[in-house]
Design brief:
The complex is a heterodimer of chains A (92) and B (401). Chain A has helices at residues 3-7, 36-40, 63-71; strands at residues 22-26, 45-48, 51-54, 58-59, 77-81, 87-89. Chain A has 92 residues and is of the alpha+beta class. In chain B, helix 15 packs across helix 17. Chain B is of the alpha+beta class and 401 residues long. Classes of the chains: A alpha+beta (92), B alpha+beta (401).
Chain lengths: 92, 401
């Protein structure tokens, strides 16, 4: 597998977003393990030992990841552009 | 395994804040327990901590399916059409995101100063009147009612009316089905009236935010908007109003823990968490239906079968909490599930936490020697409601000379 192949998101991407990759982080100090994110985006978050963990640090752009970040009452999830670092969710 | 020979549930009428001992036996011996609730079809009752989290958090268990079925339930009323408990993600998320920002820890923290002002004013009035006072009507109700009225944008002067409707919606046996239907209709019409008012005169309160989300962004239907307003108003005060006296009562029954807390009010946030674990507020959750076969610790729930959970039983799970029947304000174990788990985790949990912290710290700081004014027999416990709590709780304290 070439380096370029690894950059291609698993899901079929919309035109123009081929190379866009998001970074997903959970702040373990803020997280209270409500399980909201894992219910909203079960492929992307798992609660283990009372704390949420992203199943992958880098993901293709997906509504469910934004939904999870926007639904967290502790605002413990941060979604950023991998390359630019720009904040995608939650809204400040 | 199919759901046969169900036990009548709840196992017994609520007895103050005691937990029926059958929960402990069932959690150990019958982790999938067939039960028949007062309304709807038979269900599995789930009581173990990890199983409860799975049922509430795993997308293989659905709320939307419950709407299409005769769902098992403790209360007669099924909720208004379009209410958020009728949906699974992603539909549920679409609705929840309309209001979620108002209930983040960060936003709620901004309301703490105002909640403290209200709490202090209420205690000022209690002190001016002198003891005894009814903790429920003088403090526990008006604090969360004032906060939610201001947050949502509902006139505080209407509280007698909406409190009555709210009681009816949460009733198990206290109101007749006809009364409950009538009250649900009146509360829904009342909220629709407030929505119409917002359209004429936009405001930046939460109701205004919800109306803008519908009218400008088409994020929810009119039914969903009204049901959300009602849900926030009812859930936004009743539970906290019940828990304040429940917490004070529990602390008075545990004088050593109360003394620890009085000596160090910095323990209040931890105390609120432990009291949330310890006090059984409701009897059973709303039902979830398995959409495929799911293996829990006690067996398989088959696709199409309904499950209800007892968070109170899960909060006493001996595999998770050491001596769970003991109140230990500095307990550092797993998080309780008193606010639920998963996508439907209590929307107002951070608001409730803040209000309960403000309530406890204010009462303990400003009413030295706080205790019951009469005896246990003078306490009036609610009957026929899905939420445990006190109708009336006369308290006294050491008045300044």
């Amino acid at each position: 597998m070439s380096g370029a192949d690894r950059e291609v998101p698993a899901a079929s991407p919309a035109p123009g977003t081929r190379t866009e990759i998001w970074r997903v982080r959970v702040d373990p100090k803020a997280c209270m393990g409500t399980g909201i994110c894992a219910g909203v985006a079960p492929d992307r978050f798992q609660v283990r030992d009372g704390i949420s963990h992203p199943t992958a640090a880098y993901v293709p752009p997906e509504d469910q990841v934004v939904d999870a970040a926007e639904s967290c009452p502790l605002e413990a999830i941060r979604v950023t552009h991998r390359d630019t670092g720009a904040l995608i969710a939650p809204e400040e | 395994m199919t759901i046969t020979d169900p036990h009548p549930f709840p196992f017994s009428e609520p007895d103050e804040l005691r937990i029926d001992p059958r929960f402990e036996q069932i959690r150990e011996k019958e982790p999938l327990c067939p039960v028949q609730l007062p309304h709807g079809e038979p269900a599995w009752l789930v009581t173990r901590y990890e199983d409860v989290k799975t049922v509430l958090g795993d997308p293989r268990f659905s709320r939307a399916e419950a709407v299409r079925r005769d769902e098992p339930r403790t209360r007669y009323h099924r909720g208004l059409p379009g209410n958020i408990m009728e949906f699974d993600p992603p539909e549920h998320t679409r609705l929840r995101r309309v209001v979620a920002k108002a209930f983040t820890a960060r936003h709620v923290e901004d309301l703490r100063v105002r909640a403290q002002e209200i709490a202090d004013r209420l205690v000022d009035e209690m002190i001016a009147q002198g003891p005894p006072a009814d903790l429920v009507s003088a403090f526990a109700l008006p604090l969360p009612v004032t906060v939610i009225c201001e947050l949502l944008g509902v006139p505080f002067e209407d509280r007698t009316r909406f409190r009555h409707w709210s009681d009816a919606l949460l009733s198990t046996t206290r109101f007749s089905p006809e009364e409950i239907e009538r009250c649900a209709g009146e509360l829904s019409d009342y909220m629709a009236g407030l929505v119409a008012e917002r359209r004429k005169h936009p405001q930046d309160d939460l109701l205004g935010v919800m109306v803008a989300a519908r009218d400008e962004q088409d994020r929810l239907t009119e039914d969903e908007l009204v049901a959300m307003g009602v849900g926030v108003l009812v859930a936004g005060h009743e539970t906290t109003a019940s828990q304040i006296p429940n917490f004070v009562h529990t602390l008075l029954e545990h004088p050593e823990e109360l003394a620890r807390l009085r000596a160090d009010l910095d323990l209040v946030p931890q105390a609120v968490e432990e009291l949330m674990r310890f006090v059984p507020l409701g009897s059973a959750s709303t039902a979830r239906y398995a959409v495929e076969d799911v293996e829990l610790s006690g067996g398989v729930v088959h696709a199409g079968e309904p499950v209800v959970v007892s968070t109170a039983a899960a909060n006493r799970d001996t595999t998770v909490f050491t001596c769970p029947e003991r109140l230990d304000l500095t307990r550092k174990e797993a998080a309780h599930v008193g606010f639920g788990h998963g996508p439907h985790h209590c929307l107002g949990a951070q608001l409730a936490r803040m209000e309960l912290q403000v309530a406890l710290s204010t009462l303990l700081r400003r009413l030295p020697g706080l205790r019951l004014a009469g005896t246990e027999e003078d306490l009036v416990w609610k009957a026929g409601s899905g939420v445990r709590g006190l109708e009336k709780m006369l308290i006294t304290w050491e008045a300044a000379a």
